[in-house]
Design brief:
Distance between the termini: 61 Å
Largest sheet: none
Oligomer: single chain
Number of helices: 14
Strand content: under 5%
Structural class: mainly alpha
Helix content: over 70%
Order of helices and strands: HHHHHHHHHHHHHH
Number of strands: 0
Shape: globular
Radius of gyration: 26 Å
Length: about 300
């Protein structure tokens, strides 16, 4: 077979430049506030599995379904017997164990995936300070937890308002009972989100992050049990400080009183240490948030 001539080889084109239509962006350039808002909304969607696979939606919506069914059941029972089975604050307390597992799944989705995939330099290449990234994720998780606890409370309120026999006065009284329950749900959300997100931010492996979150919340509970059986009354009343869950309950007992402990003789006792519990909760949230911000300053500089 004859070889192609040298002239033919040299005359063949070596390449072609194609115009694929790239143009300079001339639209509005959104700043830090819009980046923060977009990151917050994305985090809130991620917590409930929106925009993810069906598998990612199973557990969050299973938890949502359980707390909703419990709220509907309580509302139905109340409509039959005419008396509330539990107050709104007590409902939030009883659902706290589900909140722990929700945080254990949602927090790694919010931060561990970004650490593992190495996309943080892309985030920080935009007008987004390192602290804004952490705060947007934290605010998203706080909102998700508050919705998880307050949404069912609103269903309970609607059931009570529609079946009350006292007219608008009954609805108003029910609203006055609901508002402290919503605030108490906010306390659960802030404490659990700040601690859970800090733990999850320490590793890029979601399984390890989830296990760490569960360990922090559940393995501190036995410490409370040990302190509560000591012969010292002060130690018994301060025992709740050893665990985030009982810390929140202690603040609730101090601030809500009968709305939380009425009809529950097994409720822990805090004596006159209510302000101590409140201060400890503030310090815990502030400390966890400060450590979270420090964590992302370190990640950004590495």
């Amino acid at each position: 077979m004859p070889e192609p001539s040298t002239t033919a080889v040299r005359s063949a084109p070596s390449g072609v430049i194609h115009d694929i239509g790239y143009q300079r962006y001339e639209g509005p350039r959104l700043g830090r506030r819009h980046v923060f808002g977009a990151l917050y909304l994305h985090g809130l969607r991620t917590a409930f599995g929106f925009g993810r696979s069906v598998k990612a939606k199973i557990f969050p919506w299973l938890v949502v379904g359980i707390v909703t069914l419990v709220a509907v059941a309580l509302a139905a029972i109340r409509s039959q017997i005419g008396e509330p089975v539990a107050t709104y604050a007590q409902f939030a307390d009883s659902m706290s164990w589900l909140v722990i597992f929700f945080v254990a799944v949602a927090a790694p989705e919010l931060v561990s995936r970004d650490l593992r995939s190495g996309v943080l330099p892309l985030y920080f290449s935009r007008p987004l300070p390192r602290g804004d990234y952490a705060l947007a994720k934290l605010l998203a998780l706080v909102t998700a937890l508050w919705l998880l606890l307050s949404g069912p409370q609103l269903l309970m309120f609607l059931g009570a308002a529609l079946t009350t026999k006292q007219g608008m006065r009954g609805v108003w009284n029910e609203l006055l009972d609901l508002l402290p329950g919503l605030l108490y749900a906010g306390l659960w959300a802030v404490v659990f989100a700040s601690v859970g997100l800090l733990v999850a931010s320490l590793t890029g492996k979601r399984a390890f992050a989830a296990g760490g979150v569960v360990a922090v919340f559940l393995m501190t509970t036995p410490i409370v049990g040990v302190l509560s059986i000591l012969p010292s009354r002060a130690a018994n009343e301060l025992a709740g400080l050893a665990s985030p869950s009982t810390l929140v309950q202690g603040v609730g007992i101090w601030s809500l009183g009968d709305l939380l402990v009425e009809g529950d003789p097994g409720e822990m006792m805090i004596g006159g240490f209510g302000p101590v519990y409140a201060l400890a909760a503030v310090l815990l949230v502030a400390g966890a948030t400060a450590l979270l911000l420090a964590r992302y300053r370190k990640v950004a500089s590495s």
